[in-house]
Amino acid sequence: MKPSNPMIVQSDRTILLEVDHPRHAEARDALAQFAELEKSPEHIHTYRLSPLSLWNAAAGGMSAQHILELLSEYSKYAIPSNIATDIREYINRYGKIKLILRDGALLLTSDETTLVTEIMHNKRMQPYLLQRLDTHTIQVDASRRGHIKQALIHIGFPAEDLAGYTEGSPLPIQLLQTSHQDKDFAPRAYQHAASAAFYAGGAPSGGSGVVVLPCGAGKTIVGLVTMANIQRATLILTPNTIAVRQWINEILDKTDIPPEMVGEYTGERKDIAPITISTYQILTYRRPNGEEDGGSEQEDYPHFSLLTSYDWGLIIYDEVHLLPAPVFRVTAEIQARRRLGLTATLVREDGREADVFSLIGPKKYDVPWRELERQGWIATAECHEIRVSLTEDEQLNYALAEVREKYRIAAESPAKLTVTRHLVERHCDDQILIIGQYIEQLKLLAEELRAPLLTGRTSNGQREKLYEKFRRGELKRLVVSKVANFAIDLPDANVAIQVSGTFGSRQEEAQRLGRILRPKSDGGLAYFYSIVTRDTRDQEFSANRQLFLTEQGYRYIIEDAEALLAG
C-alpha cells in the first residue's frame, strides 16, 4: 500500500488518476501507452484498459510485465488479481496467431492446437478457411487477407501479419540536405525513429502500421523518410485537395524527384505517376444512380482502381482517423501492399479503431505531445474554455427545443460574438483563426470582424490565395468552417478561437489545436480558446471534445465570460 501515489487501479479495468498530484504528469504519460482516457473532470481522471489499447501496446513491444510494473509504480493499492490476469492474457493474445506465406499459400499458424481448432469452428472465420494442414496450421484464402484479420480481431485474437509484401515498382528517391528553397533540411530524430519503427528494416514484421504524431510535428516528413527507405512507387491518400498540393510541394522541395514523376489524382486532375497523391473524396465517388445497374464495387466506385492500377510498393493514408468506410473495404483487398497510416489521434468518432488496427496496422510509434513541446518541436499552447450564459428568453427557447436542436441553439449563442470580438482585440497583433461549425454564425463573425470567410464552397484557388496572404501577414485573421480542421499549413497562426464544433468530436479538437502548434519564430505561446455555453449540451460536448488533449497533458483554464469582459 502506497497512499502517497497518484493512482487507483480498480477491478472493473478502470484506473483513477489524481490531477493535482505532483506525479500526475509522469503517471499520465505512462498510462497513455496502454490505456484510454474516458472522463476528465477537474480532479480525478478515469482511464480504462481495453483489449485494443493493450494490443496496440503489445504491437509496440510492451510486455505484460512492464505494464504491471508501471501500474505498481504509481498505484496506491495492490493491483487487483483479475486485472493482472487480464493484462497478461490480452497482451499474450497478440501474436498468438500468425499469418505467414509458405510456397505461395497464406497460412494461419499457432502453437496452441486448441486455438487452431476454435478458429476452424468459428462461424465468422468459415468463409476464409480452405483446409487444416496439421494441428498448428490452417490454409486460408490469400485474397481475403484483410477480411481474415478483421474476423480474428472480432473474436479476440488479433493476428500478427508476417506474410510480407509485394515489392512494387522501383523508385529511386533521395532526401536533399538543402531543399530547393535553399534551406537546410534534416529529418528530426523522432521522424527517423517513427519511420524505422514502421519499416523495421524491411522485415515481414514491418510494413503496416500507424504513426501517431501531433499536428505541426511533421508527419509528412515521416512519409518522405519512409519513401526514401523503401524506394518504391508510392500512393498517398489525403483528406482534401489542399493537402494533396502540400504533399506535392514537400516532395518537390525536399527530394530529388522531378515534377513529371509526381501525379495529382483529384477532381481537377487525373494524373498517375510513380508518386501519386489523391483524396479520400475522389476514391469514394460513386456513379449516380442509373449509370450502373447493380454493378460490382469497382463499378460503383470507379476510382478504386487507382489502388490496383499501378504496382505500388507503399500506400500512405494521411489523417488515417478520417478513412471512410468504403476505403476500409478496398484496403481489405490490398493487404500485400505496405500501408502507413499517419494521424494525430487514433480516436475515430465511428468507433472503427479496430479496423484501423487490423487493416492499416497497429500503432507503431507514438510520442506524447507535451514531450515534443518540451523539446521545442511544437509550440507551447495555453488552452482556455470560456463559458457564456444564455439570456432568460434563450433559456426558455432552449428548454422547449427538440433534443437535436438544443446543441445548435447553445452553440450559436449571440454572447459568443461579444467574447470573440474581445479576444480578437486582445490579440490584435497576432495571427488568428476563428473556427466554427455553423455557416450563419460564421458569416456574422466574418462581417463583424471584417475578416474573410472560408467554407466548403470556397474554391481551392481562392483558399490558397487567402492562406498565402495569411502566411505573409497581409491578413491577420481568418474565419473558417471545418474545412480548416485538416492539412492547412499556416505556421504563423498562433491564436485559435473555436465558437462551435462537431458535437463531442475529440479528433476535431485535436486537429483544431494542431492548427496553431507549429513552432513560432519568436518562440511565443499559442493560444486556444473554446467558447462554450454553460449548463447546456454545448458544455457537455465540450467536456468530451477535450478528452484526447487532456490525455496528452493539456489543461483547460476555465473562465467566466462576464469576468473576462469586465477585466
Classification by helices and strands: alpha/beta
Strand content: 15-25%
Shape category:
globular
Number of beta strands: 23
* Total helical segments: 23
Output mean pLDDT. 90
CATH class of the largest domain: Alpha Beta
What number of structural domains do the residues give? 4
CATH H-level superfamily of the largest domain: P-loop containing nucleotide triphosphate hydrolases
Alpha-carbon Rg, integer: 25 Å
Largest sheet: 7 strands, parallel
Question: If classified by CATH, what would the architecture of the largest domain be?
Answer: 3-Layer(aba) Sandwich
Strand order of the largest sheet: 12-13-11-14-15-10-16
What fold name goes in the CATH topology slot of the largest domain?
Rossmann fold
TL;DR of this structure?
It comes from Ktedonosporobacter rubrisoli. With 567 residues, the protein is of the alpha/beta class.
Give structural attributes.
567 residues, alpha/beta, Alpha-Beta Plaits, 23 helices
Structure overview:
The chain has four domains: about 5-95, no CATH class; about 95-160, Alpha-Beta Plaits; about 190-365, 3-Layer(aba) Sandwich (Rossmann fold), CATH 3.40.50.300; about 375-565, Rossmann fold, CATH 3.40.50. A seven-stranded parallel beta sheet has the order 12-13-11-14-15-10-16, with helices on both faces. A seven-stranded parallel beta sheet has the order 19-20-18-21-22-17-23, sandwiched between helices. The protein has 23 helices and 23 strands. Helix 2 (about 50-60) packs across helix 4 and helix 7 (about 190-200) packs across helix 8. It is an alpha/beta fold and about 575 residues long. InterPro entries: ATP-dep_DNA_Helicase, ERCC3_RAD25_C, Helic_SF1/SF2_ATP-bd_DinG/Rad3, Helicase/UvrB_N, Helicase_ATP-bd, Helicase_C-like, P-loop_NTPase, XPB/Ssl2_N. This is DNA 3'-5' helicase. Its EC number is 5.6.2.4. It catalyses: ATP + H2O = ADP + phosphate + H(+); Couples ATP hydrolysis with the unwinding of duplex DNA by translocating in the 3'-5' direction.
